[in-house]
Design a protein that fits this description.
mainly alpha; 2 strands
């Protein structure tokens, strides 16, 4: 396994050595062309694969799963409301920080009641 990893890294290094200056030139001097030829198609493929994955997951999950999740959120919110006001903390979603579009750090989640 180690030998194959070393060969792969050697191949990647060789490709970067060979194509690095070309990629640098195109990315610097022909950025719009590089975006249209490389980034746009890759973005389309990634978006299509993500949508396909979401459809497969939705098709495989039973319909009752949504209702169960709604009940769990309602239960968590009601449990928070049952606490004395002095013990209540801010509420936030339990979404992982890397899934947010915000550029700030999600330190506030450590001091909040995360609702799943």
């Amino acid at each position: 396994v180690v030998v194959s990893e070393q060969l792969a890294m050697g191949a990647i290094d060789a490709l970067l050595w060979l194509f690095g200056p070309i990629i640098d030139y195109v990315a610097t001097h022909h950025r719009p062309l590089a975006m249209m030829v490389v980034v746009l198609p890759l973005s389309f493929v990634a978006s299509t694969l993500s949508n396909l994955r979401d459809r497969v997951v939705r098709a495989m999950l039973p319909v009752t799963t949504h209702e169960a999740r709604v009940e769990r959120v309602k239960r968590d919110v009601l449990a928070r409301l049952d606490k004395p006001e002095a013990e209540r903390r801010f509420m936030c979603t339990a979404r992982a920080p890397w899934q947010n579009l915000s550029t700030r750090f999600a330190d506030y989640k450590k001091n909040s009641d995360c609702i799943f």
